[in-house]
Amino acid sequence: MVEILRALEPFSGTQLVVGDREVGRRLAIHEAVSTVIFQGSFEVGMRVKQDCLSQPAKEVLLYLGSKNASIVFADANALAVDRLIEDCFQGAGQNCRSISVIFVERSKLPEFCEKFHEKSKAFKIGNPNADAWMGPLVEGAICDRYLKFIGISEREGAELLMRGKLLPQAGRGYFVTPTLAVFKEITSDKFRKSVSLQTEVLSPHVSIIGFETEDALLALVDQMTYGRLATIWTEDSERSKRIAARLSVGEIAINQGALQMHPWDTTQARKRSGNHAYLGRGLLSQLVYQKQVYGE
To answer: 47 lies in which domain range?
Structure first.
């Protein structure tokens, strides 16, 4: 380990070092390392930040996951459902930009659920080489977790409009059907305490929540523990600005899908999502520091 650190000291570029947790910890806290970029779970990210607290000049950039939301008002345009199908299920819900919670104005909820349900049943699931639209989950542990969270949503009061299941006939891999969990009534306190609505599940598990007024909506949205991105669907530009101003997230798209956002745009993540945007254009500027020199 000492030899690795000594070898890195004069190096000003990028080097890949493979090792266990202790190797990563020692690299993070070493005085020759000026910047740490961590991508992973919230819990491990907090340990990395804690390890670096004694070095205030060290940059610690954290990308800690997401639980992204979309807000659909009654006047949302016809593209909303199609774009949300893509945002929720392309990549089987495992993209950091995937939408997994949809807030729908109550007057539109029945119509939205019907259309979203029909389209969720229509796409092909399987190997992408076989012209399938949605592929598999990455591993068995994620699949087991996905199936477990279906029951958790149901116990927390959701009506299962669509219950996900394993599709062994789809081919080699962990192929599953989507889950649509509808919460027609939920208080902000229950939302805050909910396991299914606050946990990053990394799967095609979508929670649909009805709301009556803007105030009721914001009371729920304020309880969300992640702050990566959100989308807003409404033809009322003033309303979209009001809602966007209140959302504590790094990126907001109005009347466009989350996957349409440019992945290299620089944003500032919020809450449990960390403190920076992974792969943002401004990342290089965060890896250098400015020095003022006066006089001749």
So the answer is: 2-64+274-286
Q: How far apart are CA 185 and CA 220, in angstroms?
A: 11
Tell me if 292 is assigned to some domain: no
Q: Are residues 135 and 250 in the same domain?
A: yes
Q: Taking the mean position of all CA atoms in its chain, how far away is CA 91?
A: 13
Amino acid identity, position 80: A
pLDDT at 180: 98
Q: Are residues 190 and 76 in the same domain?
A: yes
Beta strands in 195-244, from DSSP E residues, in sequence order: 205-211, 226-227, 229-233
**Residue 15: is its pLDDT beyond 80?**
no
User: Residue for token digits 């105030």?
Assistant: 215
Structure tokens at 233: 């669907």
Task: Please state, as a whole number, how many other Cβ atoms lie within 10 Å of the Cβ of residue 165.
Answer: 13
d(CA 156, CA 148): 13
Distances from the Cα of 117 to the Cα of 101, 138, 219, angstroms: 15, 24, 27
The answer on 227 and 147 residing in a single domain is: yes
Number of domains in the chain: 2
Measuring CA to CA, how many Å separate 81 from each of 78, 123, 266? 7, 14, 27
End-to-end CA distance of the chain: 43
Reading the block at residue 195, the tokens are 């396991």
Query: Taking 90 as the threshold, does the pLDDT of residue 135 lie above it?
Result: yes
DSSP calls for 160-179: EEE---B-GGG-SSB-B--E
- 291 pLDDT higher than 80: no
Q: Give the distance from CA 145 to its chain's centroid.
A: 17
Same domain, 50 and 103: no
Record the tokens describing residue 183, joined without a space. 């919460």
CB 221 within 8 A of CB 103: yes
Closest CA to 67 of 233, 249, 276, 255: 249
Nearest alpha-carbon partner for 209 in 188, 239, 240, 226: 188
269 falls within a domain: no
